[in-house]
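Problem 12. The chain below contains 119 residues. Write out its predicted structure in token notation.
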Amino acid sequence: QVQLVESGGGLVQAGGSLRLSCTASGKSISINAMGWYRQAPGNQRELVALITSGSTNYADSVKGRFTISRDNAKNTVYLQMNSLKPEDTAVYYCYAQVRNTYGDVYNYWGQGTQVFVSS
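Solution.
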């Protein structure tokens, strides 16, 4: 079993910054990818940013403003969010794709952290 614990959400004014963190814990896990999704009221959950061992992917709406990074030793992923806009307001969910010792792949989600950007 893998647990994802998020932190760093909150309230910020437009143009401000926030940094989200998410740490994965579990026995004998190998993480293929970690990332962040978000869901605003009335909207579907959407990809924000994803990082693997060799690449990063961003939603077009956050390119140039958000940066995803990963500390493999700590099984932690970060999302630095700059130049925040009111439309970035959403619940942000941490995501991890994990491979166990048998080679099985599973997807895990954090509990979500609220980001609210005021205009």
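Discussion. The chain has a mean pLDDT of 95. Students who got a different answer should revisit the alignment rule from Section 12.3.
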